[in-house]
Structure formats: C-alpha cells, structure tokens
C-alpha cells in the first residue's frame, strides 16, 4: 500500500477507444467508480494472471497506489545461431512456445531434451509469470556422465562409486538402473541425455528406512511381520541331504524361486500351517515374515470319568471336535458360563489359543436389614434382578434412584459377566 504524490499517471486510449492509465510502463484499466469522484483502476494483466496492482484516483490524481505486480521484470533477449529469438532469464535460455493475443509463452530450451518444465510468460516484453521448475540447475550442476566397461564389454555408468546398467532409451534420453536392481530390487535410477545427467533418483535400497541391518546372524523375535532385513543366511542339510535355512533356531524348507530370490517356509508349515516365511537373495536374507504359530507342547490330565482334558495355564479344556489331525478344545466352563476360550492342537502341540475367558470370581453375599440377599463386588452392592436357568442377574443398588446401568451375572455363585457402567464414581 503506497500513497506517493510524486507518481504521475499518463492517460491514453487503446484501440477500442477505452481510457487506460500508464504508470511506470504498466497499464491499468478502469475497474469501477467509488464514492464521489473516486475511480478504481486494475492492472491489465489482472484477468489473465491475477495481478493485484491497484490504483485509486480522484480527478485524475492518484490518492491510493498498491504496486503489487505479479512480476515486472523486463525481458532480455538473445538470438541463436539460426537467428531465432531467445529469452534469457538468470542465464537460462527460453524458446518461444506460442502466442495468445499479446501474451507470449516461452519454454526452457532444454524442454525437448530433458523435459524441463520451466515456463515464462511475457506481455509487451515484460515478464508477467515465471514457473521455476527446472530439472536441475543447468549452470552450476551440469554433471557429465562417466562410464566403464565390464569384462564382457558392456558399458556401465558410474556415479558416486555406484554402477548402473542401461535399462532403456527414448530418443536421446537413456535410462540407467542400479546394478543391484535385479538382485536387491534397488530403485535408484539415472537419466542421461547426450552424456549429461539430467535426473537422478537416489533411492538406493541401502538407504531405505524400511530395512534393518544387523551384525549378528539372528533377528529379534519381536520383529514386525513383513519387515525387511539384511542378514547372512545360515544353512544346514537334513538327513536326506536337503538344504535347510536356519534362523533363530527355527528351520525353513525351500519353497520356490523367482530370478535370484528364493522363498523359504517354516518346516512346520505342512503340519501346523505355520505362516512364517523368509526371502533370500544370494544367501542374504532380505525379508522375514515373522508369523509363527504357537508351538507349546500340550499337557493332559484325566477326570474322574477317564476323559482326556487339556490343561493350559492351570485352566482345563474339554475336547470339542476333530478335523484331520487338528483337535479343537473348549474351556471346561463353556457350558456353564459360556466361556469362549478355545485351543487347537496338532500332534499334541498347541497351534492356536483364543484367550477369551469370562470372569471367574467367586461371588460374595450379604443380607440387608430386611433379610434380602445382596451381592457385593468391589464394595458396591447389587440387588437381585431375575434368573434364566442357572444364571442370576444382579443390578446396582442405585439403579432405581440414579438409573445406574451396572449389571452382574452369576452362575453357581461365580461371577461370569460384569458390565461396569456406573452412573457415579464408585470410589467416592
């Protein structure tokens, strides 16, 4: 916002006869009339380029001047060897790309070769827009490619000590991939035009945060599934001479191959359906899917009737059914308390354990002054609400007064469910 009495406007008429104002070489069109004799003027490039320069005048005298042009750099031109006009900005050359009215579009001279996206718009030899999206700094960072040759005579690009192989070409542009792409799927890529590097994707696999480098030959047991690693593989041979991978004391069998990559499955996959998988490339572990199933040995007892019972963490499970070599077991309290805990075993080994036991706290009772039976849990009293078979429902004693929603279910004086939704603070 500037109020400069020394700025003297010049008024002209365009080809259509409309009055325009010129200040410092910039043209302004009439935008509207304000209170009394005040007139608003906008830069002529406002409609096209959104220029925000504004001038207010009263009786052709400037009373308000906001000199906020999008850009007001005067264009500098040069001529190529063939005589073509070239725009020069910051030492970079731009070629004419098209004309729309008085506006001229210019593209970076490297657009055709290197797909540079830098653009300049000019009106009457004044730069009104500059999109600075160069592929790289042509003046200061022009990197010339260096090459070597393999023993077989193949040409190899060398950049920062890393070798790249030719991946393809399109016109004068050549793509180069990291030499480790086939082995380790390295994503680093280099683009070259006329032996000059115009694009460099520095995405080496050794710099990826998703990869863990370990000095030992073991992987932490708490490693996340589908986590990438780089660890030297250790192998053994079975009695039949088959090669086996050993990791963290667990054996893996050969599953398949894709190029240089080899898949290994846990040796218990066929028996127990273990989903742990290891990927290796040139005897180096590059991926470890740590999804082992439970492999605890089952412990059994027999009840008074001679039925076999599974015991896990002191809790008894009864046989529920069989499917091939897999046996399903349910918690012994399932029929009484609808306990949902389930165990699956294969060849006396626990492969699945759903630990969803219900509450098994013994109920404590008291009696009111009138002799009614009351359940007491954590110092809170519950009154009898109803029965359904052997199950008894109890409501919080404050339900009638405060509509407390807390409920307790008991079966044979054992609490099997507790809805802890008190409408008050039980600790107060």
Automatic annotation (TrEMBL):
This is SFRICE_007501. Signal peptide: none annotated. Coiled coil: none annotated. InterPro entries: FWCH1/FWCH2, Znf_FLYWCH. Residues 11-70, 80-135, 150-204, 238-292, 303-358, 368-423 form the FLYWCH-type domain. Keywords: Metal-binding, Zinc, Zinc-finger. The keyword Zinc-finger applies. One of its GO terms (molecular function) is zinc ion binding. It comes from the Eukaryota.
């Amino acid at each position: 916002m500037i109020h400069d009495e020394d700025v003297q406007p010049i008024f002209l008429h365009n080809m259509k006869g409309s009055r325009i104002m010129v200040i410092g070489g910039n043209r302004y069109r009439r935008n509207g009339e304000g209170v009394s004799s005040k007139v608003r003027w906008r830069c002529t490039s406002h409609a096209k380029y959104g220029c925000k320069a504004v001038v207010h005048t009263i009786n052709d005298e400037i009373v308000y001047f906001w000199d906020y042009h999008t850009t007001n750099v005067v264009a500098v031109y040069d001529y190529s060897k063939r005589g073509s006009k070239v725009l020069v900005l910051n030492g970079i050359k731009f070629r004419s790309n098209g004309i729309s009215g008085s506006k001229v579009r210019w593209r970076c001279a490297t657009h055709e070769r290197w797909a540079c996206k830098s653009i300049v718009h000019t009106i009457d030899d004044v730069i009104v827009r500059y999109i600075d999206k160069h592929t790289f700094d042509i003046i200061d960072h022009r990197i010339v490619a260096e090459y070597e040759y393999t023993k077989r005579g193949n040409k190899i690009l060398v950049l920062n000590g890393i070798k790249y192989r030719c991946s393809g070409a399109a016109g004068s542009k050549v793509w180069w991939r990291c030499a480790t792409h086939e082995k380790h799927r390295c994503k680093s890529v280099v683009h070259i035009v006329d032996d000059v590097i115009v694009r460099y994707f520095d995405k080496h696999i050794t710099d990826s945060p998703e990869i863990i480098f370990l000095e030992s030959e073991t992987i932490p047991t708490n490693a996340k599934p589908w986590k990438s690693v780089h660890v030297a593989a250790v192998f053994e041979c079975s009695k039949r001479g088959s090669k086996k991978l050993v990791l963290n004391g667990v054996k893996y069998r050969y599953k398949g191959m894709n190029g240089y990559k080899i898949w290994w499955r846990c040796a218990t996959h066929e028996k127990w359906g273990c989903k742990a998988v290891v990927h290796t490339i040139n005897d180096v572990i590059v991926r470890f899917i740590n999804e082992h199933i439970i492999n605890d040995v089952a412990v059994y007892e027999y009840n008074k009737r001679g039925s076999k019972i599974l015991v896990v963490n002191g809790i008894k499970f009864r046989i529920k059914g069989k499917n091939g070599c897999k046996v399903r077991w349910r918690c012994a309290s399932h029929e009484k308390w609808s306990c949902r805990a389930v165990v699956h075993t294969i060849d006396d080994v626990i492969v699945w354990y759903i630990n969803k036991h219900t509450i098994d706290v013994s109920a404590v009772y008291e009696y009111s002054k009138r002799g009614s039976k009351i359940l007491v849990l954590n110092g809170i009293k519950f009154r009898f609400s109803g029965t359904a078979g052997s199950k008894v429902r109890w409501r919080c004693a404050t339900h009638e007064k405060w509509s407390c929603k807390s409920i307790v279910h008991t079966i044979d004086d054992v609490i099997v469910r507790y809805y802890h939704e008190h409408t008050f603070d039980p600790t107060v």
